[in-house]
Amino acid sequence: MTPLVSIIIPVYNGSDYLRTCIDSALAQTYPAIEVIVVNDGSTDDEKTATIATSYGDQIRYVEKENGGVSSALNRGIEEMRGEFFSWLSHDDVYAPTKIERQLDVMRQQKLPMNQTILVTGTSFIDENGDPIRRVQRKVAGFYSSQDMFRHLLLSSTLNGCALLIPRKAFDHRRFSLEDRFIQDWICWVELALDGYDFYVMREPLVYSRIHGEQQTKKIAHRATTESNRYLERLLQDVEVRENGEELTSIILKHTFKENATDVRERYLATRDVTRYFGPIEYHWLRWNGILFSNLLSLYRGMTNLIYR
């Protein structure tokens, strides 16, 4: 069995790195792929369009009005014919074996193809393609849907370009159009809540490029607003689930990590805090969360300063 994999490349004014990106998608050792480039209303005098169309029928090329990366990814999902979805940002690069290794691991581990999301490791490169060293959490192995929910809320997020997702996961779900900074994290959280399990590989098969023109840097100011809005909605949504109290506790602990004090206090104003925390735990989390949040902000600020 050789399932078709759709590699979706959303791009906006991406002529600097697009050719390298497309070449890495077409160089996959796995034979059954389609590459879909979605031009999200680029305004660079046709530079992006010229590069994409130069590939002819090697890729499928779609143009749309500008609506942000979520809208471009959603358009790619609508256009895709494959059984698996693989996102590749226009400034990032796949290792040649990215897709093949993920599907090999799925078969070797006997993972359900329609219920498991595969995740590879990530390496970082600069604008010239030279490696950047970054400290990363060493995670690997099988994560049940609830384990991954906990990981995403309390540990770290996932690089969207490292994922291989069954098309079935998007039957009733899309990337949030309301959110432009954390839309990928929101999608992974929701897929975990939908019951999808994850298998994380340590192999770095995606090269994520750090450079001064990254769109995420330009809209980083949206992070707090988007996060608080989503957390408030998420707290309401999980209450009705059978394991709602456990999920709520995880989300509330996340608010300490992100210093989302207002979200937490509004929620707990009408509820008994002892349902979710022990008396000492609550105060420890509060002060530990402030320290963690400040250190994380400092790290992000220094990283953006170095690679802006």
Topology:
Blueprint: E1 5-11, H1 18-26, E2 33-40, H2 47-53, E3 60-64, H3 69-79, E4 84-87, E5 93-94, H4 98-108, E6 116-125, E7 131-132, E8 141-143, H5 145-154, E9 163-166, H6 183-193, E10 197-209, H7 215-218, H8 223-238, H9 244-257, H10 261-268, H11 279-307
Parallel strand pairs: 1-2, 1-4, 2-3, 6-10
Antiparallel strand pairs: 4-9, 5-10, 6-7, 6-9, 8-10
Helix pairs in contact: 5-6, 5-9, 8-9, 8-10, 9-11
Task: Tell me what the structure shows.
There is one protein chain. With about 300 residues, this protein is an alpha/beta fold. The chain folds into two domains: about 5-215, Alpha-Beta Complex (Spore Coat Polysaccharide Biosynthesis Protein SpsA, Chain A), CATH 3.90.550; about 220-305, no CATH class. About 40% of the residues lie in helices and about 20% in strands. The protein contains eleven helices and ten strands. The protein has helices at about 20-25, 45-55, 70-80, 100-110, 145-155, 185-195, 215-220, 225-240, 245-255, 260-270, 280-305, and strands at about 5-10, 35-40, 60-65, 85, 95, 115-125, 130, 140-145, 165, 195-210. Strands 1, 2, 3, 4, 5, 6, 7, 8, 9 and 10 form a ten-stranded mixed sheet that branches. Strand 2 (about 35-40), helix 2 (about 45-55) and strand 3 (about 60-65) form a beta-alpha-beta unit. The mean pLDDT is about 90.
